[in-house]
Amino acid sequence: MLVETKLPDAGRQTTTSESPSSERRSPFSSSEGGPFVSPLDAIHESARLPTSSRRAIVVVGMHRSGTSALSGALGIFGGCLPKSLPPPNESNKKGFFESTKILEFHHRLLHSVGTTWFDWSKIPTAWYETAECEQFRHELKDIIAAEFDSSGAMIIKDPRICRIVPFWASVLDDLCIQTDYILPFRNPIEVARSLRTRNRINMYQSYLLWLRHLLDAEYHTRGSRRLVVDYSDLVRDEREVLSRVLESLNCVLPRQSEAVFGELSTFIDPDLRSSHCEKQYLSQRTDLSPWMIETYNCYRRLVEDPTDRAAMARLDSVRHAFEEACAVFSPAFHSQRGFLTTNNGVARQSSSPARSVYLKQADEVWVIFNDQRYHVSDANVYMDLFASNMIPPEAENISDISRGPDFNPGTCLVRCEKSNFIYLVTGVPGLSLRKHHIVHYKTFLQLCFDESRCRTVPELVLAGIANGAAIME
C-alpha cells in the first residue's frame, strides 16, 4: 500500500549536515528536526494538506531499474506523460517515457552544482539556498506547465531526480500539486551490468551510483506518500505489481480497467531484461560492500511496509557511513575529473572560439574528457556544455582542430547522435580550425571498448585511420 511514512520518535542522531540552517527560512528548511526526519519536513507536512486537485506521480529510481517500464505502464492506464518524449533505442526498446526538456534541464542543473549524472557525491545542502537554485526552481515550473496538460495525473520520471528530491518537492509544493512517489529498485549487480553494457561504466562506480540514488531517494521521500517496487517483481508478475500500484495511488487513472491489463503483458516484456541475478547471489559476492547488501535488503522490507522503522534505521546507519566515506574519497574522484571541481572550468575551456564545437540538431551529446588515457566511464555527460549560450553564433558546421599524433591531455571526444560520427575537439592555441570526421562511430566503439580500450587518444585515432575508419576531408 502506498502510504504516508510516519516519522518515528526514536532512532538516529541528527547531524548538522541533515538539518538546514534555521537562520533564514526557505522552501528547503524545516522548523524542527527529529528522528528519521528529512530536510524537507516542512514540504512533506504541507503536502499532507493539498489545496489543489492537480496530481503528480513521481517515479524515483536508479538508472536501469525499471523507471521507464513503470512510467510507460502508468501512461497506458491514462497517466499524463510529458509531451517531449525521446524515441526508443537499443537500450530501451519500449521507450524512456521521460521529458527531454526535463532531462536537458537536469543536465544543466547538475552542471551548475559541479556534478554529473554519474557522480556518486552528495548534492551540497548549501546549494539549495542559493539564488541559482531559485532560478532553476522558476524555470522548472515553466517546464512543467509546458510539458503536462492541466488535467490528469502527471507522470514524472528521470533517475536524476533521486539526487534532487528536495528541489522537486519544493517546486511541486509551490504549484500545489499532490504528489505520490514510486521508488523502483533493482539488484545492484544487474544495474551495474546493464550500465556497463550501455555506458561502459565500471561496475564499482555503478555500485556507488546505485547506493547514492537509493539512499537519497528513500531518505528524502520520508513523510510523503510513497510505494516501493522491486523490479524483479514487476517483470515476474506485472499484473500483481501494477494492481498494487493503482490501488495505492491517491487518484484514479482514466483507463484503469480490467481490459487495459492485457496490454501490460506485451509492454513489460521479461525478455528485455538484459541481466538477471538471483537475490541470494548478493550475499555470496565478496566484491560487494555490506552497505549495498544492507540497502537492498532494507528496500525489500520497504516493499511490504514503506514505514518500516527498523529498515529506515538501518538505512540511516548505511547513509551516515557512506557520507563519511564520500567526504574522504569524493575529492579524489573529482580531482581525477578536473572539470567537476574547477568552478565550471570545462565551460570556460569550451567558451573560446578555438575550443568550441557546434552540434547541429543533436538529440544527445556524449563528451569524454581525457588525461593520458581514454576514460570509458566518463561518457554520456554534459549536453549542457553545448547549449545556446556556449555556441558561437557564426558556427554552422561541426568543426574540430587538425593535429598530428601528439594530441595533448585535455582532449575531448564528442559524438553527435544524428550524425553517427565522433568528432575530436581540442584547444591547442595557434591551430587553425578544419573540419574532419575522425572516426566512424561504430568502428570507434570496437576500437575503444575491445582490444584498444586502454590506448591513448592518438593511438585510437591512428588505429582508426589504419583500419580505414577515418574519413578525412
Mean pLDDT: 68
Number of helices: 15
Question: Low-confidence segments, ≥5 residues, pLDDT <50?
Answer: 6-51, 337-473
Q: Which word captures the global form?
A: globular
Overall helicity: 25-40%
- Work out the radius of gyration: 23 Å
Oligomer: single chain
Distance between the termini: 62 Å
The appropriate CATH architecture of the largest domain is 3-Layer(aba) Sandwich
* N-to-C order of helices and strands: EHEHHHEHEHHEHHHHHHEEEEEEHH
Percent of residues in beta strands:
5-15%
Name the strands of the widest sheet in spatial order.
Answer: 1-5-4-2-3
Largest sheet: 5 strands, mixed
- Overall tally of structural domains: 2
CATH class of the largest domain, named Alpha Beta
Remind me, CATH topology of the largest domain? Answer: Rossmann fold
Which class of secondary structure composition applies to the elements? alpha/beta
Question: Could you give the count of β-strands?
Answer: 11
What is the topological layout?
Elements: E1 3-4, H1 41-47, E2 55-59, H2 67-76, H3 100-113, H4 131-147, E3 153-157, H5 165-174, E4 178-185, H6 188-199, H7 203-220, E5 225-230, H8 231-236, H9 238-248, H10 261-267, H11 290-304, H12 309-336, H13 345-351, E6 365-369, E7 400-401, E8 412-416, E9 421-425, E10 433-434, E11 439-440, H14 441-448, H15 457-466
Parallel strand pairs: 2-3, 2-4, 4-5
Antiparallel strand pairs: 1-5, 6-8, 7-10, 8-9, 9-11
Helix pairs in contact: 3-4, 4-5, 6-7, 11-12
